[in-house]
């Protein structure tokens, strides 16, 4: 009917209009695919709740230094604090809403199959201190290549929920002389994106200002230091 009523010009215009529409639809499809690829490639983040304050949560993200995030705020990593109470915080991370208790971490699934890295920054004294977690509980670690194993203080071990009653006791040499320790196995240790299972550790009878991130963890890493930055990469 287009040919009879309007001639070839009308038909041509119809074709041009259809081609334009198809071109727009194709471009739109490409844009959507590109956005989907970007979103699907985004890495999940590991979020820990180190403490709560009125209207704020003290979060550790990907093993970093604890930072306060106000209710309603969103971090650069895409973590939003929705609400807080005396012991918990409700957050939105990795596309899900979750309730965290103080000391609990939401573990990223992206590094469960191996690999991963952690980037640490030295403090004013040149020490590398970082937040990780042991068996899902947030722990402050001091990197110590002179420590044979991960070392925990007595109260830290209790807070994590470690059972030392069946552990093997031994004497170790420390900077303050000999100390009695109990050998334990840690189910999981996480620092940054790195997760190691079944890690040897010792629990001291006395208190310690930090847990020591010793060689039972570090000997499975590639360690690179560049000035004030240390990068750990999981080898196996």
Give structural notes.
- By secondary structure, this protein is of the alpha+beta class.
- The protein has three domains: about 40 residues; about 60 residues, Roll (SH3 type barrels), CATH 2.30.30; about 120 residues, Acid Proteases (Cathepsin D, subunit A, domain 1).
- It starts with a helix and ends with a strand.
Short description:
The protein is an alpha+beta fold.
Corresponding CATH architecture of the largest domain:
Beta Barrel
CATH topology of the largest domain: Cathepsin D, subunit A, domain 1
- Helix tally equals 4
Q: Residue-averaged pLDDT, rounded?
A: 78
- Sheet/helix structural class: alpha+beta
Q: Going by CATH, what is the homologous superfamily of the largest domain?
A: Acid Proteases
β-sheet strand percentage: 35-45%
Layout of strands and helices, then pairs:
Blueprint: H1 2-6, H2 8-40, E1 47-53, E2 56-61, E3 67-70, E4 80-84, E5 88-93, E6 96-101, E7 105-106, E8 117-121, E9 129-134, E10 137-143, E11 150-152, H3 154-160, E12 168-174, E13 177-191, E14 194-204, E15 211-213, H4 215-218, E16 221-226, E17 229-234
Parallel strand pairs: 10-15, 11-14
Antiparallel strand pairs: 1-2, 1-7, 2-3, 4-5, 5-6, 8-17, 9-10, 9-13, 12-13, 13-14, 16-17
Keywords: Hydrolase, Protease
Protein name: TIGR02281 family clan AA aspartic protease
EC number: 3.4.23.-
């Amino acid at each position: 009917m287009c040919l009879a009523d309007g001639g070839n010009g009308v038909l041509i215009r119809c074709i041009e209009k259809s081609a334009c529409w198809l071109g727009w639809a194709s471009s739109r499809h490409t844009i959507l695919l590109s956005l989907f690829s970007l979103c699907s490639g985004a890495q999940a983040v590991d979020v820990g709740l180190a403490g709560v304050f009125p209207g704020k949560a003290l979060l550790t993200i990907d093993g970093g230094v604890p930072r306060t995030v106000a209710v309603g705020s969103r971090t650069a990593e895409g973590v939003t604090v929705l609400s807080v109470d005396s012991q918990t915080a409700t957050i939105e991370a990795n596309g899900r809403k979750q309730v965290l208790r103080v000391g609990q971490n939401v573990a990223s699934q992206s590094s469960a199959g191996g690999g991963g890295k952690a980037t640490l920054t030295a403090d004013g004294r040149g020490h590398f201190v970082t937040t990780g977690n042991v068996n899902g509980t947030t722990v402050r670690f001091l990197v110590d290549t002179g420590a044979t194993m991960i070392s925990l203080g007595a109260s830290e071990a209790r807070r994590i929920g470690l059972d030392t009653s069946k552990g093997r006791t031994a004497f170790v040499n420390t900077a303050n002389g000999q100390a009695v320790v109990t050998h334990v196995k840690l189910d999981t240790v996480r620092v940054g994106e790195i997760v190691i299972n079944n890690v040897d550790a010792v629990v001291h009878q006395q208190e310690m200002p930090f847990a020591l991130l010793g060689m039972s963890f570090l000997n499975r890493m590639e360690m690179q230091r560049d000035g004030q930055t240390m990068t750990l990469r999981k080898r196996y």
